[in-house]
Amino acid sequence: MSNHLAAALLVFTLLQMVIINATGGGLPCHMGALVMTGLFAMGVRQVEHVWLTNRPRSVTSLRGRFYFRRDMGLLWTTGVALPFLWAPVGWTLTAG
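Above: the chain's sequence. Below: its structure in C-alpha cell form.
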C-alpha cells in the first residue's frame, strides 16, 4: 500500500508541475500547487493509516481485495485527475 501511495503522490506533484509550466502560471499557481500537494499528502496519510490499523489481514479475503482495489482506484483517479481539475482555478488566479 505504501508504494502505491508514494507513487500516487509523486505523480500528482509531477502533473501539477507540468501543468503549471505549460500554462505559464505565476506565484498564485505555485502557491496553490503547494497547498494542493499538502492536502493530497494528508489524504494519502489518512488512507495509509486506515489500511495499517483497520485492515492488516483483510487483503486475503474477497471483501478485503474489493476494498483494496476500490481504494487504489480512488487513489489513482484522484492523483491523476485532480491536477487537471484544479488547473482552471490556477488560470483564473493568474489572469486576475
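The two ends are 41 Å apart (CA to CA).
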